[in-house]
Amino acid sequence: MTPEDWLANFESKIADVQAKAAEFQENLETAGATESSKDGSIRVTVAPNGALSDLRLADSARSGPALAQEILKLARKAQRAAAVHVAEAFAPLGADSEAMRMVTGYIPPEEPEGEPDAPAPTYRFIDETEPPPAPPRPTQQPQPRPRRHRRSDDEDDDFGDNSYLRRD
């Protein structure tokens, strides 16, 4: 292979990588997702990183805990869809790449359809005047530290006693 051939091959590879990177960037910028309730009264939009970027509530939207539950459910669905879109954005870089395996490893599970909503999380306030609960006891005893080897006077000393780290 001549140097000119090698250079042409190298430039071709660079152009291919640049094209794939541009396609990846374009796909990633549009990888957000929007989910709506069945009646259309609630719409949730998330960015490619899963952050909530828009929330629309119609006047007909429910109120109270049912509204909160529906918003959270739609946000989880939109986050999963955004994660799938981000994974699809990696396609130009290679479907069997380490980056693709890393991204697809973080896709959340799909929301079950038609099942009743999970109960809202409950919170308990702790009275700060109460002592905190005792930490769990360790199940293993700590291992003793290994003994240090002490140098005997008859061991060979390659560097002498002149340490440059010692203060005089």
From TrEMBL:
Residue stretches in coiled coil: 7-34
TM segment ranges: none
MF terms (GO), sorted A to Z: DNA binding
Keyword Coiled coil set for record: yes
Keyword Coiled coil part of the UniProt annotation: yes
Region annotated Disordered, chain positions: 95-168
Pfam families: YbaB_DNA_bd (PF02575)
Domain of life from the UniProt record: Bacteria
UniProt keyword terms in alphabetical order: Coiled coil
Residue stretches of biased makeup (Pro residues): 131-144
Name of protein: YbaB/EbfC family nucleoid-associated protein
